[in-house]
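Minutes, project huddle
Topic: does the predicted pose make sense with iron/sulfur cluster bound?
PN asked that the exact inputs be recorded in the minutes so nobody has to dig through chat later. Recorded below.
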Amino acid sequence: MNVYDAQRMVDTLQPHGFVETASADDADLVILNTCHIREKASEKVYSELGRLRVAKDEAARQGRRINVAVAGCVAQAEGAEIINRAPVVDVVVGPQSYHHLPELLARAERDGRALETEFPAEDKFAFLPPPKPDVIRARGISSFVTIQEGCDKFCTFCVVPYTRGSEVSRPAAKIIDDVKRLADNGVREITLIGQNVNAYHGEGPDGRIWSLGTLLRHLAEIRGIVRLRYSTSHPRDVDETLIEAHRDIRAVMPFVHLPVQSGSDRILSAMNRKHSADDYRRAVDRFRSVSQDIAFSSDFIVGFPGESEQDFQATLALVTQIGYAAAYSFKYSPRPGTPAADMQEMVSAEVMDERLARLQELIDSQQSAFNKAAIGTTVDVLFERAARNPGQIVGRTAYLQPAHVMAPETIIGRVLPVRIESLERYSLLGELATPLVAAGETMPAHISETRMGA
Ligand code: SF4
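Predicted holo structure (tokens), as shared on screen:
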């Protein structure tokens, strides 16, 4: 979401004469777009601000002004403190207010500093200018689109309900317009994003409330869109329309990110996740009942306050049972202001380290087995860009595995079958399974020669 938000900030500033620079040293304005989910996020912000202070002082000596803005969830959570602690900062803006950036910059110019971390009454998306066609093309064939923001779940470890506010879904017609504009300018894959994306309940153009499944069904009809993804889902909000979308719509990719955090009901309850481990297993089963091809990724927290070895064993058992294609796992760290931050039974750092290592070993072995299973098969790959190796093009499989082939750049933006021959770390290597027929799609000479030599 921060990648998407950063792009939308660029879209907001472009009509005011700003262009992106390759380096912060060349910029008149530097925005730090921050995330509060990871540990030590605010310390990282302050150390980055220290570096920017040096650049700002140097620019001032040369008679040039650099404005510094802090955006995102750290700005939302700690805005006043940032203003107090970091004189280098000119503007602080929360994630719901970045459409106000031009006027905040003007206010900072006038008053010295500007801070906005209130949740505005208006919908920021209504005020964001659409990206220009050349900008969309430059960003590539895959794009994020926010459909929902905020969260009403209040997991005890999480800051999102406080930094992003309560759940708000965008009207479906606006999302359809956004996706059409992206598709018209070369985008082939859309990832719908939201903190709780499958809680989506936006107003449809028919006046009814649309679910995520209904929205996916309509987006799949947009010409040019060949792949649809969504992230991040909550197990409790998996409804029948979503399952049916996976059953019926080819463009909906069979790769579901479904965080569970823990396999222990006792810990899930302490986390206020509002589901049990069996509820989660049932949600996975519902997806698998419509397609055995669906693979899962997840998020895990180890060492949540009070987690016993028995609780952790329940997490390992759940991972073993589900079998993941990938997963993210982290040691618990308290976020100020969340209920879990006041919990007493902290798990020691050594125990957390040891549990995280065991969990990651299990997840790595599952991911490795999943990737190895692709060798010898033919899979569809959506090609994204030229790879670093000359002559190679890289794309993604349905399961987001990077796949490299030797091919001309004309295949970028197309889904083509690839015979997978080998695996190099997390990347699949293969060759196109069908010959290219369109004009200009012959192999570059040096590639053909290499092939002949082999
Ligand atoms: S559902 Fe996700 S975003 Fe919402 S509070 Fe829980 S962890 Fe945070």
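Observations noted during the meeting:
- The radius of gyration is 24 Å.
- The chain has 14 helices and 19 strands.
No decisions taken; revisit at the next huddle.
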